[in-house]
Protein backbone atom coordinates (compact mmCIF):
# COMPACT_ATOMS: atom_id res chain seq x y z
CA UNK A 1 0.00 0.00 0.00
CA UNK A 2 1.35 3.35 -0.99
CA UNK A 3 0.56 6.78 0.35
CA UNK A 4 -0.72 8.54 -2.78
CA UNK A 5 -4.50 8.57 -3.35
CA UNK A 6 -5.77 8.01 -6.89
CA UNK A 7 -7.68 11.30 -6.94
CA UNK A 8 -4.40 13.26 -6.76
CA UNK A 9 -3.49 11.86 -10.16
CA UNK A 10 -6.97 12.53 -11.55
CA UNK A 11 -6.88 16.17 -10.46
CA UNK A 12 -3.37 16.60 -11.89
CA UNK A 13 -4.68 15.20 -15.19
CA UNK A 14 -7.62 17.62 -15.09
CA UNK A 15 -5.26 20.58 -14.53
CA UNK A 16 -3.04 19.52 -17.43
CA UNK A 17 -6.07 19.06 -19.70
CA UNK A 18 -7.35 22.52 -18.78
CA UNK A 19 -3.99 24.08 -19.56
CA UNK A 20 -4.03 22.29 -22.92
CA UNK A 21 -7.45 23.76 -23.68
CA UNK A 22 -6.18 27.24 -22.84
CA UNK A 23 -3.28 26.71 -25.24
CA UNK A 24 -5.47 25.53 -28.10
CA UNK A 25 -8.02 28.32 -27.74
CA UNK A 26 -5.77 31.27 -26.96
CA UNK A 27 -2.53 30.71 -28.91
CA UNK A 28 -2.31 31.57 -32.60
CA UNK A 29 0.87 29.73 -33.56
CA UNK A 30 0.02 26.42 -35.24
CA UNK A 31 3.01 24.63 -33.72
CA UNK A 32 2.11 25.67 -30.19
CA UNK A 33 -1.49 24.60 -30.79
CA UNK A 34 -0.10 21.20 -31.73
CA UNK A 35 1.96 21.07 -28.54
CA UNK A 36 -1.13 21.89 -26.48
CA UNK A 37 -2.94 18.99 -28.15
CA UNK A 38 -0.07 16.74 -27.09
CA UNK A 39 -0.51 18.07 -23.56
CA UNK A 40 -4.20 17.10 -23.58
CA UNK A 41 -3.38 13.63 -24.92
CA UNK A 42 -0.92 13.19 -22.07
CA UNK A 43 -3.49 14.26 -19.48
CA UNK A 44 -5.81 11.58 -20.83
CA UNK A 45 -2.98 9.04 -20.70
CA UNK A 46 -2.41 9.86 -17.03
CA UNK A 47 -6.10 9.26 -16.32
CA UNK A 48 -5.99 5.95 -18.17
CA UNK A 49 -3.01 4.76 -16.15
CA UNK A 50 -4.54 5.90 -12.85
CA UNK A 51 -7.67 3.87 -13.52
CA UNK A 52 -5.60 0.96 -14.79
CA UNK A 53 -3.91 0.88 -11.39
CA UNK A 54 -7.17 1.44 -9.51
CA UNK A 55 -9.01 -1.37 -11.29
CA UNK A 56 -5.90 -3.56 -11.45
CA UNK A 57 -6.61 -4.07 -15.13
CA UNK A 58 -4.07 -3.94 -17.94
CA UNK A 59 -6.44 -2.61 -20.62
CA UNK A 60 -5.81 1.00 -19.67
CA UNK A 61 -2.09 0.63 -20.31
CA UNK A 62 -2.70 -1.06 -23.68
CA UNK A 63 -4.95 1.86 -24.56
CA UNK A 64 -2.21 4.33 -23.59
CA UNK A 65 0.10 2.45 -25.92
CA UNK A 66 -2.39 2.93 -28.77
CA UNK A 67 -2.82 6.62 -27.91
CA UNK A 68 0.94 7.06 -28.21
CA UNK A 69 0.91 5.40 -31.65
CA UNK A 70 -1.88 7.68 -32.84
CA UNK A 71 -0.14 10.74 -31.37
CA UNK A 72 3.07 9.87 -33.22
CA UNK A 73 1.18 9.44 -36.50
CA UNK A 74 -0.75 12.66 -35.92
CA UNK A 75 2.40 14.65 -35.23
CA UNK A 76 4.17 13.30 -38.31
CA UNK A 77 1.31 14.18 -40.68
CA UNK A 78 0.38 17.41 -38.91
CA UNK A 79 3.89 18.80 -38.96
CA UNK A 80 4.20 17.83 -42.64
CA UNK A 81 1.01 19.84 -43.30
CA UNK A 82 2.39 22.80 -41.32
CA UNK A 83 5.63 22.70 -43.34
CA UNK A 84 3.61 22.55 -46.58
CA UNK A 85 1.53 25.55 -45.50
CA UNK A 86 4.70 27.42 -44.57
CA UNK A 87 6.19 26.70 -48.00
CA UNK A 88 3.08 28.15 -49.63
CA UNK A 89 2.27 31.03 -47.31
CA UNK A 90 5.40 31.86 -45.30
CA UNK A 91 3.37 31.78 -42.10
CA UNK A 92 2.18 29.43 -39.37
CA UNK A 93 -0.12 32.00 -37.81
CA UNK A 94 -3.58 30.45 -37.85
CA UNK A 95 -5.29 33.81 -38.39
CA UNK A 96 -3.60 34.00 -41.80
CA UNK A 97 -4.80 30.54 -42.82
CA UNK A 98 -8.58 30.80 -42.71
CA UNK A 99 -9.79 29.97 -46.18
CA UNK A 100 -11.94 27.11 -44.88
CA UNK A 101 -13.18 29.00 -41.83
CA UNK A 102 -16.67 30.43 -41.77
CA UNK B 1 5.51 9.23 2.46
CA UNK B 2 8.38 9.29 0.00
CA UNK B 3 5.88 8.58 -2.76
CA UNK B 4 3.74 11.54 -1.74
CA UNK B 5 6.74 13.90 -1.80
CA UNK B 6 7.79 12.55 -5.20
CA UNK B 7 4.23 12.97 -6.45
CA UNK B 8 4.17 16.63 -5.46
CA UNK B 9 7.60 17.32 -6.97
CA UNK B 10 6.64 15.75 -10.29
CA UNK B 11 3.19 17.34 -10.24
CA UNK B 12 4.59 20.83 -9.69
CA UNK B 13 7.16 20.27 -12.45
CA UNK B 14 4.45 19.03 -14.83
CA UNK B 15 2.02 21.87 -14.13
CA UNK B 16 4.77 24.51 -14.25
CA UNK B 17 6.08 23.14 -17.53
CA UNK B 18 2.59 22.98 -19.02
CA UNK B 19 1.88 26.55 -17.94
CA UNK B 20 5.14 27.63 -19.55
CA UNK B 21 4.20 25.87 -22.79
CA UNK B 22 0.95 27.78 -22.94
CA UNK B 23 2.25 31.26 -22.07
CA UNK B 24 5.79 31.38 -23.48
CA UNK B 25 5.95 33.42 -26.70
CA UNK B 26 8.99 31.62 -28.09
CA UNK B 27 8.05 28.25 -29.70
CA UNK B 28 11.48 26.69 -29.15
CA UNK B 29 11.38 27.38 -25.42
CA UNK B 30 7.79 26.16 -25.32
CA UNK B 31 8.96 22.87 -26.81
CA UNK B 32 11.73 22.49 -24.23
CA UNK B 33 9.25 23.17 -21.41
CA UNK B 34 7.01 20.50 -22.90
CA UNK B 35 9.94 18.05 -22.67
CA UNK B 36 10.19 18.93 -18.96
CA UNK B 37 6.46 18.18 -18.58
CA UNK B 38 6.91 14.83 -20.31
CA UNK B 39 9.75 13.80 -18.00
CA UNK B 40 7.67 14.75 -14.95
CA UNK B 41 4.75 12.74 -16.31
CA UNK B 42 7.05 9.75 -16.78
CA UNK B 43 7.83 10.07 -13.05
CA UNK B 44 4.11 9.99 -12.28
CA UNK B 45 3.74 6.85 -14.40
CA UNK B 46 6.49 5.16 -12.38
CA UNK B 47 4.65 6.11 -9.19
CA UNK B 48 1.57 4.43 -10.66
CA UNK B 49 3.58 1.24 -11.22
CA UNK B 50 3.45 1.56 -15.01
CA UNK B 51 7.16 1.11 -15.68
CA UNK B 52 6.96 0.03 -19.30
CA UNK B 53 4.66 2.93 -20.22
CA UNK B 54 7.00 5.36 -18.44
CA UNK B 55 10.00 4.24 -20.49
CA UNK B 56 8.04 4.20 -23.76
CA UNK B 57 6.66 7.62 -22.90
CA UNK B 58 10.14 9.11 -22.54
CA UNK B 59 11.36 7.37 -25.70
CA UNK B 60 8.39 8.26 -27.90
CA UNK B 61 7.38 11.69 -26.61
CA UNK B 62 10.58 13.26 -25.36
CA UNK B 63 12.77 11.33 -27.79
CA UNK B 64 10.87 11.25 -31.06
CA UNK B 65 7.94 13.65 -31.08
CA UNK B 66 9.67 16.60 -29.43
CA UNK B 67 12.74 16.18 -31.64
CA UNK B 68 10.38 16.38 -34.62
CA UNK B 69 8.81 19.53 -33.17
CA UNK B 70 12.18 21.18 -32.56
CA UNK B 71 13.32 20.17 -36.03
CA UNK B 72 10.30 21.82 -37.64
CA UNK B 73 10.71 24.94 -35.49
CA UNK B 74 14.33 25.14 -36.63
CA UNK B 75 13.37 24.65 -40.29
CA UNK B 76 10.60 27.22 -40.27
CA UNK B 77 12.41 29.87 -38.25
CA UNK B 78 9.13 30.88 -36.63
CA UNK B 79 9.23 34.35 -35.10
CA UNK B 80 8.07 35.01 -31.57
CA UNK B 81 4.36 35.45 -31.37
CA UNK B 82 3.33 39.07 -31.32
CA UNK B 83 -0.14 39.50 -29.99
CA UNK B 84 -1.41 42.09 -32.40
CA UNK B 85 -4.60 40.28 -33.32
CA UNK B 86 -7.62 41.92 -31.77
CA UNK B 87 -9.16 38.47 -31.50
CA UNK B 88 -6.49 37.48 -29.02
CA UNK B 89 -8.10 39.41 -26.19
CA UNK B 90 -11.45 37.67 -26.70
CA UNK B 91 -9.86 34.28 -27.20
CA UNK B 92 -7.85 34.57 -24.01
CA UNK B 93 -10.96 35.05 -21.90
CA UNK B 94 -12.82 32.36 -23.84
CA UNK B 95 -9.91 29.98 -23.31
CA UNK B 96 -9.55 30.58 -19.61
CA UNK B 97 -13.28 30.36 -18.89
CA UNK B 98 -13.60 27.18 -20.99
CA UNK B 99 -10.65 25.68 -19.18
CA UNK B 100 -12.07 26.53 -15.76
CA UNK B 101 -15.44 24.98 -16.64
CA UNK B 102 -13.69 21.87 -17.98
CA UNK B 103 -11.47 21.66 -14.92
CA UNK B 104 -14.48 21.98 -12.63
CA UNK B 105 -16.20 19.15 -14.46
CA UNK B 106 -13.29 16.75 -14.65
CA UNK B 107 -11.71 17.73 -11.36
CA UNK B 108 -14.94 17.45 -9.38
CA UNK B 109 -15.33 13.87 -10.52
CA UNK B 110 -11.74 13.12 -9.55
CA UNK B 111 -12.15 14.94 -6.25
CA UNK B 112 -15.46 13.37 -5.30
CA UNK B 113 -14.52 9.73 -5.61
CA UNK B 114 -11.35 7.72 -5.15
CA UNK B 115 -10.26 9.65 -2.05
CA UNK B 116 -9.78 6.48 -0.06
CA UNK B 117 -8.36 4.55 -3.03
CA UNK B 118 -4.59 4.43 -2.92
CA UNK B 119 -2.06 3.34 -5.51
CA UNK B 120 -1.71 -0.42 -5.38
CA UNK B 121 1.50 -2.35 -5.43
CA UNK B 122 1.22 -4.43 -8.57
CA UNK B 123 3.31 -5.95 -11.34
CA UNK B 124 0.75 -4.85 -13.91
CA UNK B 125 3.03 -2.44 -15.71
CA UNK B 126 6.05 -4.66 -16.20
CA UNK B 127 7.28 -5.48 -19.67
CA UNK B 128 6.31 -9.12 -19.14
CA UNK B 129 2.64 -8.44 -18.38
CA UNK B 130 2.27 -5.81 -21.13
CA UNK B 131 3.96 -8.08 -23.65
CA UNK B 132 1.72 -11.01 -22.75
CA UNK B 133 -1.40 -8.90 -23.21
CA UNK B 134 -0.13 -7.17 -26.35
CA UNK B 135 0.81 -10.35 -28.19
CA UNK B 136 -2.18 -12.47 -27.24
CA UNK B 137 -5.46 -10.65 -26.65
CA UNK B 138 -4.52 -7.37 -28.30
CA UNK B 139 -2.47 -8.65 -31.21
CA UNK B 140 -4.90 -7.33 -33.84
CA UNK B 141 -4.86 -3.70 -32.59
CA UNK B 142 -1.08 -4.00 -32.36
CA UNK B 143 -0.82 -4.98 -36.04
CA UNK B 144 -3.31 -2.29 -37.09
CA UNK B 145 -1.16 0.26 -35.24
CA UNK B 146 1.78 -0.73 -37.43
CA UNK B 147 -0.33 -0.10 -40.55
CA UNK B 148 -1.38 3.28 -39.15
CA UNK B 149 2.25 4.24 -38.63
CA UNK B 150 3.13 3.13 -42.17
CA UNK B 151 0.29 5.22 -43.62
CA UNK B 152 1.32 8.24 -41.56
CA UNK B 153 4.91 7.88 -42.77
CA UNK B 154 3.82 7.69 -46.40
CA UNK B 155 1.52 10.67 -45.93
CA UNK B 156 4.26 12.79 -44.40
CA UNK B 157 6.64 11.84 -47.21
CA UNK B 158 4.07 12.60 -49.88
CA UNK B 159 3.22 15.99 -48.36
CA UNK B 160 6.85 17.04 -48.15
CA UNK B 161 7.99 15.71 -51.52
CA UNK B 162 5.70 17.33 -54.03
CA UNK B 163 5.82 20.81 -55.45
CA UNK B 164 3.25 23.19 -54.08
CA UNK B 165 1.67 26.21 -55.70
CA UNK B 166 -1.29 28.39 -55.00
CA UNK B 167 -3.96 28.43 -57.70
CA UNK B 168 -6.07 31.58 -57.46
CA UNK B 169 -5.12 34.36 -55.09
CA UNK B 170 -6.28 32.52 -52.00
CA UNK B 171 -8.01 35.64 -50.73
CA UNK B 172 -11.71 36.02 -50.13
CA UNK B 173 -13.71 34.98 -53.16
CA UNK B 174 -15.17 37.70 -55.39
CA UNK B 175 -18.77 37.28 -56.46
CA UNK B 176 -19.32 34.42 -58.85
CA UNK B 177 -15.74 33.27 -58.71
CA UNK B 178 -14.43 30.99 -56.07
CA UNK B 179 -10.90 31.39 -54.94
CA UNK B 180 -9.57 27.90 -54.77
CA UNK B 181 -6.35 26.72 -53.39
CA UNK B 182 -5.20 23.54 -55.08
CA UNK B 183 -2.09 21.58 -54.39
CA UNK B 184 -0.67 20.81 -57.81
CA UNK B 185 1.66 17.99 -58.52
CA UNK B 186 4.67 18.70 -60.63
Describe this structure in words.
The complex is a heterodimer of chains A (102) and B (186). By secondary structure, chain A is an all-alpha fold. Chain A has a single domain, classed as Helix Hairpins (Orthogonal Bundle). Chain A contains three helices and no strands. Chain B contains six helices and no strands. In chain B, helix 2 runs antiparallel to helix 3. Mean pLDDT of chain B is 81; it is low at 172-186. Chains A and B meet through helix 1, helix 2 and helix 3 of A and helix 1, helix 2, helix 3, helix 4 and helix 5 of B.
SSE layout:
The complex is a heterodimer of chains A (102) and B (186).
Chain A: H1 6-26, H2 30-55, H3 59-89
Helix pairs in contact in A: 1-2, 2-3
Chain B: H1 2-23, H2 27-47, H3 51-76, H4 87-112, H5 127-134, H6 139-161
Helix pairs in contact in B: 1-2, 2-3
Record keyword descriptors for this entry:
heterodimer, A: 102 residues, mainly alpha, Helix Hairpins, B: 186 residues, Four Helix Bundle (Hemerythrin (Met), subunit A), 6 helices, 0% strand
Compose a concise summary of this entry:
The complex is a heterodimer of chains A (about 100) and B (about 190). Chain A is mainly alpha-helical and about 100 residues long.
